[in-house]
């Protein structure tokens, strides 16, 4: 293989690190590696199948001489009996390092998998990442092509640290994005409205509860894309809070507490509670960049979306007792709850006595408090569409 030119190296490394930030770019990175090694396939085995579980499939991603060539294609990986196992991590090897030609030709793995895909020459390395275990990198050529040379191995060893870093960055970002998604869902399940705004109060993002509050136009609204309060006095205070959130978020080395306000609702319902908190920027980021703040809104009269099934399991309630409990949590009196559930008042009272016995409380207000403070709300389905 010819010496890797500087501009070719720059293009390849750029593709690898772009892929580390966005999965959509793996197609370009793997395709460049395929062309570099004059291969018919370049494959990453992301997950090996469980030997003890026949139904557990692995996962591989590949580019090569196939339909839709050049695109990343994901396949289940069935072969837990591959001969390329138990290799030292981060060591480049080929078939010739493991067996002679006759053994390779008679290998069940080559006969049943490789031969049908015109795979004969294989260069491989098991890439150990700090947080995601071992990922298996495979470069293959057809039998008619030349075997992988020592120059090919050297080139693979040269690129290995960059490939390992790119994979590790992608794994770390995936984990961070997953955690962020879980926290966002937890906020939604607690029926807390959240939105992201910029310095001008322009709404950048919002969850489903924020959307419902803004669409009701009862206390808060969006005018020209900007968050505003219904009444001028509330709007002035809202503007002040937004300005304060974007000013220095630390004073004397100590984080400032986010400010809060109450927003009056024209409908006469209980006021909305609003907290605005700035999102700290990286200290390396010069200038304004993309400053943003989070607005948390709580509607005190909003209905609870706590999971009936979780509440039932937490407190050992029957379905009827759980249904009554949820009505009480949503602010109904016992008589109103009985009417809503289409049951008699005496039946509702009997259910309430049983609920008191199972939860260990004596008053309806205590029951509402323990239900609202329980994890029942976190057991519901996702609120985002």
From TrEMBL:
Limits of the HTH luxR-type domain: 314-371
Tree of life domain: Bacteria
Matches recorded under Gene3D superfamilies: Winged helix-like DNA-binding domain superfamily/Winged helix DNA-binding domain
Protein name: Helix-turn-helix transcriptional regulator
Originating species: Marinobacterium rhizophilum
